[in-house]
Amino acid sequence: MRMPLPGKSRQTAMLAEIHEQPAAVARALMAAAEPSAQIAADVSSREIDLIVFAARGTSDHAALYAQYLMQYLVGIPVALATPSLFTVYRRPLRLQRTLVIGVSQSGEGPDIIEVLARGREAGALTLAVTNVADSGLARTADRVLLCEAGPELSVAATKTYTTSCAALAALTAALPGGEPLRPLLEALPGRIESALEIEDRVAQAVGRYVHAQECVVLGRGFEYGTAREAALKLEETCYVTALPFSTADFRHGPAALVERGLPVMLFAPPGPTMPDSIELLVWLREQGADCIVVAQDDQALDLATTPIRLPAAVSGEGYASQLLAPLGYIVPGQLFAHDLALEKGLDPDHPRALSKVTRTH
Amino acid sequence: MRMPLPGKSRQTAMLAEIHEQPAAVARALMAAAEPSAQIAADVSSREIDLIVFAARGTSDHAALYAQYLMQYLVGIPVALATPSLFTVYRRPLRLQRTLVIGVSQSGEGPDIIEVLARGREAGALTLAVTNVADSGLARTADRVLLCEAGPELSVAATKTYTTSCAALAALTAALPGGEPLRPLLEALPGRIESALEIEDRVAQAVGRYVHAQECVVLGRGFEYGTAREAALKLEETCYVTALPFSTADFRHGPAALVERGLPVMLFAPPGPTMPDSIELLVWLREQGADCIVVAQDDQALDLATTPIRLPAAVSGEGYASQLLAPLGYIVPGQLFAHDLALEKGLDPDHPRALSKVTRTH
Q1: Interhelix angle for A224-238 vs A57-73, to 10°?
Q2: What is the ipTM of this complex?
């Protein structure tokens, strides 16, 4: 067991990489510009009418964000693949006029590589989103978007998540329908920088949760991926049983879990999901839940047990700007998992049972 | 608080409905035969090349099963919808040549109805899978498959899950590629009857877990929906924080949660996922996890802390028969949640905070 003392030095690789995100996202956006234009031309000329993502873990959460973003702006249906059909059951799918996107920071997940290889055989256009140019995934795909995150030393991925999201946002901006995003990409690194201003507040907030063994993490729509990713960070670094749900699915059963004192983390950015967030927060407080609320809105923050107020710059103004908010909203989730691990005397850089590259079939 | 005494009468609505499943599934299969043939004709004549499911909670797990089954046999890509894009963000999707299937036992989920209504406007063929013929969902859809489960009194759904799965299996059998399922449907109720033989064994097994507050529930491929559904039952009836994963996703991070004594429930049917199940079980036991294994295979059961052996009839012989195994494998999951609730002194028929019909937007 690794046992740094509580309150120990914050000089972890994970924290350093959380801080690198504005610069890394700027590089990812720059690297994505040209290949995104090429892929957009392919999508038009090949009359692509379906996008299928293959990804695992953190990369799957970036895919989930892109599923909302692309469907919202481009209007093409986006599916998340069931990789085992390709790798375990070995069944082909009809994938003509389909763009198959594999997301993997290492580019070495055998199942994700296999989905792309089978997609190519079936006539699909294939794209790798990866942090490693010389990887099996990049070699298998027709096109590549590099995350340009630099080496990621922490096992718990942070900058490869936001750079994957950024690369996919740049691709979406290049596709027909993505025009509203284009003028907004340049400011994105600065918005993540703004989210980092929350660091001291999060460090001060985690102490209350040092003995929590379980929690629920909620987000709706564009923030559902954020909830899933924040829950995974809590599982990896703090060994907290963190259950993520969309707020709608949460009402269909898991709400029975709520009891006095249960920590519930809610990501509640401005936008059309706000009435749902407020209604749910009122109910959660009535049940005595301990609500950690990441938001900018006064009404939502006033309902929190532990309010975490993000600067207005994180969501920006207007609906198109709000579509990019998840890249900032995940930052307090990352910091919370990191700081809570330290407070528990755990080493966030080296979760038990995990290695940096996971090879599943 | 409702506080029946531990070991109290097992005459609950939930248990009665678990037992009704063979008869209910027989009715669902009979009811589905004719409309399935009509829908199959529509799918061919309209050159459907994408299927999109919209569902919440238990119904979403039936959709997850159908996603594997239809992709495996029919080869058409199947996506799970993101309902909030239709209901909260109000964006259209290109859904020509698409079959949109809404699954809802009550047929009254406003978000699911909305996805079907928007699908129709966009030119999709729409299908309702519901237990209520005179419901908003049935009225909105072009076609209807009725579950014929009879009134479901328990808030925790059981027979509407297996009948939804059965109706979707009948539809798959009618589609091009579904031929191998056709001769197997008739025996399906008997296979679920066989799974019910496990009842005494489960009742005897739950005592060990009466103080467990959290657990992990695992299944791969066709059993991923089973894992999700079993976890939801544990959350609803026992208030256990139950984290479901595909075994592949589990290795990408959540494996860090495993510590000595953590209950891990694994659904491990015969078939191509067995090597993965065995490898994972060996690792889990090395970590000291408390493994509840639902299986037929000796090697898998020998690795269990708590083995739950299903009769051979549940999976049947051959790959096509195994595709229907999830309808039997969920039965011990349902019984486990029911019996553990009783053992904890809780009323499985009336989970706190829930009502039978959940209306999310």
Answers
A1: 170
A2: 0.91
